[in-house]
Structures are given as C-alpha cells and as structure tokens.
User: Fold this.
Amino acid sequence: MKRHLAVSLAGVAILVTLMACGNSANSGPSVSQRATGLAQTAAALLTSTAAASITPITPTAPPTATTAVTTLPALPATDTPVPATDTAIPTATTTPCSSLKADFVGDMNVPDGTHFAPGKAFEKTWRLRNISDCPWTTDFTLRNVGGEPMGGVTINLPNAVPPGATVDQTVSLVAPTAPGQHTGRWQLFTPDGTAFGTRPYVQIMVP
Assistant:
C-alpha cells in the first residue's frame, strides 16, 4: 500500500509540474514562480512520503533453543519397616531360700574310735539330708571347720540335692603320726561361702 501511495504522489507531482509549465507560458513570471513552488512542495511531499513508507527492518535475535526439563514425580517409598521379631527371653529368677539346713543322717564307715596306724590313708563318708526349702547344687562344698584336717581338702557335692533328699559325702584323710585320739569337724557351705547346717566329724585313734 505504501508503494502505491508513493507512485500516486509522484504522479501528482508530475501533473502539477506540467500544469505549472503550461500556465507559465500564458501568465508570465508570477505564474511561473507559483508553479515552481508547487513543484517543490510536491517534491518535498513525495520525499517525506517515500521516507515514511520505508520501514526499517530490525534484526531479531534467533530463537533460543530451550531444553524442556520434565520433573518426574517422586516415587513413593517402597521400603516397609519390618517389625521387630525378637522376643525378650524371660530371665530366670531365683526365689531366695527362707532357710538352709542340713541334717546328719549317719556315719557310712569308720565308726568313732576306729584305730589307724600312724600315716595310714583312709576315707570317711557321712550321709547328710537336705531339710531346707532350697536345693543344693554341685557348687555347694564341704570344708574342714575345726579340729585336725588330717590332710583333707575342701570338696564339692557330687550331685544336686533337692529338698528332702540325702547325699553321701566322702573325704580322703590320712591318720596323724602322733599317737592318741584325733578329731576333725566338717560343714557345708553355699557357693557364696556361707556355712550352714550340721557339723559332722571324724574321730580315730592312733596307737
């Protein structure tokens, strides 16, 4: 459309110029001057119109390539807590004994007053009964608590002894070399070292 406007204005300018020239021949210098002014005005109008019809081209920046980033939804956690399966093991509790007692049942050998030669080895066995309300274990011991040990040492019970049961306890001894009567006393002890019950003894004669 701007191009057509420029052509039309050019045509108008030419027509004005021709008219001016024609009139100049008949009207004299004043008419000629008027035609010249009209021609100059038409030329200026043509120039400004042509200039206005030219639209400068502004370079545009090429489109910038963009990288499409798609955010994936977070995956739900699949780890399921495993419930603890360990079952607490009940701890065995020991009922404290109200009492610890031992009763003497009898001598199983070597009656009192038995004669032994000086330095003679022998064994003495007592039978004892558990008359307490707690069992005796093999951690219970029999120890010498008085008189002459006659070479005897502390020994453990040979087996567990429940309440009401009996146990035969044997110690290895050696007759003293000195003549006369010799006596040794023994007693039961708990694992923590507490003495309890009867105190059986051995009594021999050395000639």
Residues 102-206 form a domain with the Immunoglobulin-like fold (CATH 2.60.40.10). Residues 157 and 201 are 17 Å apart (CA to CA). The helical segments are 2-27, 29-53.
